[in-house]
Design goal:
This protein is α+β, with helices and mostly antiparallel strands. It is built from eight helices and 16 strands.
Length: 282
């Protein structure tokens, strides 16, 4: 009941303005003396692990700075010769791309073409596989490449900012395809393609990538398509960007790129862990 009331309330609230305001608040400087106490309190509330942070807690100037922290080297080994998890997260859905259809939640589906905003790319994915990765507030919030290849395209698609929690996923139709998002295409040496979608959400200040100035929650509400010539080489496990609060990553593989397998809904994974097999090279 509470969840339904929240969704109803969010239909009338200015979600983009609220999210920008939340981002501004999280970027306020925390006095140095209070930083360890503030970040440890946050960690107790959300079950985060401040001991994994790369830097001393005194060095994080704001809550957002701590939230988007890097981890100590070596904490997330990247599996070799495999598709790897793009983030620390829980698995929200996984399966096969069936005639442009992906599973959002039990009994609810959505269109891959609508999600990607690219008819040709969606058609390449038919018969491929996908997984949805939900990042909770406790998680490490940088996202990484699931495969070695080259970034050929990235697109910012404006949209709504519905929550992406379990209740919203179960009750908001086409949630991932109507929320604003960044869609990235990585091409592989074997002729395959992987689409990675970074979905914005309520109270996510920004979603940013490291190789360009694209970000979500932009004031200019128009589609922004980027083509990279030459494409940008990327290794499996290399950082692609970060969320400035929790959200969702969707990975979709063409059959030639590889196959997501061995995952179960509700399972937790860490960045760099094996999530499937690679396709064959030519």
């Amino acid at each position: 009941m509470l969840g339904r009331l929240l969704i109803l309330l969010l239909t009338i609230l200015p979600k983009h303005a609220m999210s920008r305001a939340a981002g501004g608040l999280m970027n306020l400087t925390v006095p140095r003396t209070f930083r360890p106490a503030v970040y440890r309190l946050y960690s107790r509330i959300f079950a985060a692990r401040p001991e994994d942070a790369e830097r001393s807690l005194f060095e994080y100037e704001s809550v957002n700075d701590f939230f988007t922290r890097a981890l100590k080297p070596g904490l997330r080994p990247v599996a070799s010769d495999a598709l790897v998890s793009p983030a620390d997260s829980g698995i929200g859905a996984t399966g096969t791309v069936n005639h442009d259809t992906l599973v959002q939640a039990k009994g609810r589906t959505y269109s891959l073409e609508a999600l990607l905003g690219d008819t040709a790319l969606a058609r390449r994915m038919d018969g491929g596989s996908f997984a949805t990765f939900y990042l909770a507030p406790r998680d490490y919030h940088r996202f990484h490449s699931p495969i070695t290849g080259a970034i050929s395209h990235a697109t910012y698609i404006p949209g709504h900012l519905w929550p992406v929690n379990v209740f919203a996923v179960a009750h908001v139709a086409e949630l991932f395809a109507v929320n604003e998002r960044i869609v990235m295409q990585i091409d592989t040496a074997g002729g395959g393609a992987v689409a990675i979608v970074f979905v914005g959400a309520t109270m996510v200040g920004m979603t940013r990538v490291v190789f360009d100035d694209l970000h979500t929650n932009a004031r200019r509400r128009t589609i922004d398509r980027r083509t990279y010539a030459p494409p940008i080489p990327i290794d499996a496990g290399a950082q692609l960007g970060h969320f400035e609060f929790g959200s969702t990553v969707i990975v979709v593989c063409s059959p030639e790129a590889g196959r997501v397998e061995g995952l179960a809904v509700g399972q937790t994974v860490q960045m760099g862990a094996r999530i499937g097999t690679l396709g064959s090279s030519p």
